[in-house]
Amino acid sequence: MVQGIWTAQVPDEKGRTVVKPLYSDAGSGIIFNLGCNISIGDENLPSGVFLLPVKKVAQSISLPASAKIAGIRFHPAAGYGVLGDKPSKPILLERDDTFASGLYHLFDELKHQTQSEQQIKLIFDWCIANLATESLIPTPLEKAFSAILCGAAPGQLSEETKLSQRQIERLFNTWLGMTPKHYQRIQRVRQVIQTVRERGDIDLAELAVEFGFSDQAHMTREFKSIAATTPGKFMSSE
After folding, report:
1. pLDDT at 107
2. Are both 160 and 71 inside the same structural domain?
3. pLDDT digits 0-9 by tens, 23-37
4. pLDDT in tens, 119-154
5. Within its chain, how far is the Cα of 36 from the centroid?
6. Beta bridge pairs of residue 116
7. Last residue of a domain, one of 80, 112, 130
């Protein structure tokens, strides 16, 4: 259901805007903007609680000095199961909305906490109290996710899910807003990112072979398409 709980802030003394990449993981989330205006991609986010959409490619988040944010990151498709919505851009929730009222109570508590550890605990406790412990994702979709992570091609999912290819495509579109092929592309690039972070300096040609790309050039094209940078530049930035 929840793959991560996080907080971040930019000290006043930095006096400059911090820009960081947000790499796509096919998940969605909730962000609490506890301070000044921030931006994600081309969207300006004032103080408040926002639903974050599933993004097919990387975006940048811009945090000015004194920015304070926190959030919940859902596993792929879990956000749709929890929220019943699949926004195409960040959506500011209204305080009088039934679901949002609890989130704004949490928002107010977070604003009064200065320690990130306490903010994490507040969000964790809210998740335990308000989110279902059982999976809300359809079993065939979970099986498709697992098969793709194990190396299955999008055209091989019918055997795992007992659904036709058309039914699988419809399931992915309903819950994620993308095709199984694009989901596979995102997850493969994400695996490359995680591997580079874990191993550090690594031969890119070997990495391409390890994750099933036809060659290093193929991996570079896919990486740039999804992560908006090249594997070499990403490795240098880590």
Report:
1. 98
2. no
3. 999 999 999 999 999
4. 999 999 999 999 876 778 999 999 999 999 998 989
5. 22
6. none
7. 130
24 and 17 in contact (C-beta within 8 Å)?
Answer: no
94 and 20 part of one domain = yes
Q: pLDDT at position 14, please?
A: 63
Q: How many domains does the chain have?
A: 2
Are the CB atoms for 28 and 197 separated by under 8 Å?
Answer: no
What CA–CA distance (Å, rounded) separates 228 from 213? Answer: 18
Apex CA 133: angle with CA 129 and CA 137, to 5°?
Answer: 130
The residues facing 74 across adjacent strands are 2
Place of tokens 């989110």: 131
Q: Are 40 and 22 a contacting pair, CB within 8 Å?
A: yes
Would you say how long the chain is, in residues? 238
Sequence-separated (6 or more) residues with CB below 8 Å from residue 156: 147
In the structure encoding, which two tokens stand for residue 108, read together? 């107010």
